[in-house]
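ok so i was messing around last nite and threw this chain in just to see what happens. nothing serious, just curious
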Amino acid sequence: MTNKERMLSSKLYVANDPELRKDFKHSRILTRLFNNTTEEQMDYRKELLGKLFGSVGDHVYMEPPFHTDYGINTTIGKNFYANYDCIFIDVGRITIGDNVMFGPRVGLYTAGHPIDPTVRIEGYEYGYPITIGDNVWIGGNAVINPGVTIGNNVVIGSGSIVTHDIPDNVVAVGNPCHVLREINDDDKQKWEAQKQAYIAEMTSN
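result:
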């Protein structure tokens, strides 16, 4: 088993490997090109993201700057938005569903290092995958740690440190991140009423 295969299988591996260095350099080139684009180069940005990630759905928008280790180990669904300074450390696979929004400086960190200092300084690493479901909003400066799965229809509060799985249909906040409450019909009624009020105001002008 190669170091790349070990890395993607959540086994201990060594990052100083020719195949991984090649993939890493490829990602660095594409992210540098992406981060240097202007607002007049939206088609070029889309092209670069298509080359960078394992797969990308329709209507994916990321604000530069953005940083990732490999890119190819990340898949993104349709209707995705990431604000400034997001970081994807994808030594483990990152899977992002449809209709997902990230605030600024959201970090997805699949990588880990041995607790034992002797093994750690010898260059051994590991990575556990991160999975994010559909219709998720993650607030600014939130950190998603290795091995975490976030369910569908979830809101993660800004500044949260997510160390454990989060179930569907909840608001979760804090360090460590915990479920604050379920999302319910009261939320739907409140925001639907505000939307209808907006529509009525705008159509009356």
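not much to say yet. Residues 14 and 124 are 5 Å apart (CA to CA).
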